[in-house]
Amino acid sequence: MKRLSENGNSAHEVGQKRANRFGLYDMLGNIWEWVNDWWDWNYYQNSPSQDPTGPASGQERVMRGGAWFYGSKSIRVSFRGWFNPAGRMDVSGIRCAREVDVP
Fold first, then answer.
1. Is the pTM of this model over 0.70?
2. 97, 35 Cβ separation under 8 angstroms
3. Looking at the 3D structure of the chain, how many domains does it have?
């Protein structure tokens, strides 16, 4: 497996790379980011086509964004990984966000 990183095969401090077109930093390839969805291998076969909410329960949570430790296949928005939240993984984290009302 080829490791991808521009900083010595490790995670980097937030905001050191260019922002994407939405002004967001580090959305892909730094560390996996936990999301609220539970993991179900077959969920998307029968889910709504727009804004699916994910299964109501499960054992593992979805992670997105890929991480420096994994190959280029995982470093894309559409790739979903999964992991049990009770476990420990040093290539995952969370992103603090808030909703803003746009007039």
1. no
2. no
3. 1
